[in-house]
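Hi everyone, sorry if this is the wrong subforum. Our group has a chain we'd like a structural model of before ordering constructs, and none of us has done structure prediction before. Sequence below.
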Amino acid sequence: MCERRCARGGEWGKAGADIATGDAQPLGMPLSSGMGFIACRAPFASDMPGCRAILGDAKGESGYEFQSKWNAGSVTPVAAAAYMAAKGAAGLAAVAQTSAANAAALMHALTDINGVERAFSAPGFHEFVLKLSTPVAPVLHALKAQGILGGIPLRQYFPDLGQSLLVCATETKAAADIARYVANMTRIVGKRFQPAPCSIKQAHNS
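Answer:
Right subforum, don't worry. Here is the predicted structure as tokens:
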């Protein structure tokens, strides 16, 4: 909810929320065990568990607060607070908008490929699910050979989805990255629709 509202340019407080949480993975964070963020109205701040990392903006007029349970050697809360402070409210909105736009562009391009379709029609943020008419595992293997992390196969988690794939695109991806993914997916999936070579013709040519 929070990421979508950020992408639309809304403000959580104006929406009537007292506490808002979200996934920080799309916000420029590297792949890791995951990290989230939490925001609240001032009266609730003292009830938040863990420690606080507070940073002001460039003018020192306002700040962002990150609270999390962490050990003394961890810098994750400070790094997250620094990132949010550096971006500012407008910057975070831009990050979310770019992530949503990249995901939409990738989804529309991939679903134009024969044998690839969208699994769900509900709105999304930076992720979407595709259904392939060919086994997902070989496709991901071929994409990985080209240096592309194609997504997460979902059949092991949701058998009813069949040959499905969870794909993500964030603000870290450029148009060239999206085009490269689409070109390789087109080539890989397209080969699955090519007729098998004629063994009689091959024997005659040899």
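For your construct planning: Residues 76-110 form the longest helix (35 residues). The beta strands are 19-23, 36-40, 51-56, 63-68, 116-118, 127-132, 152-153, 164-168.
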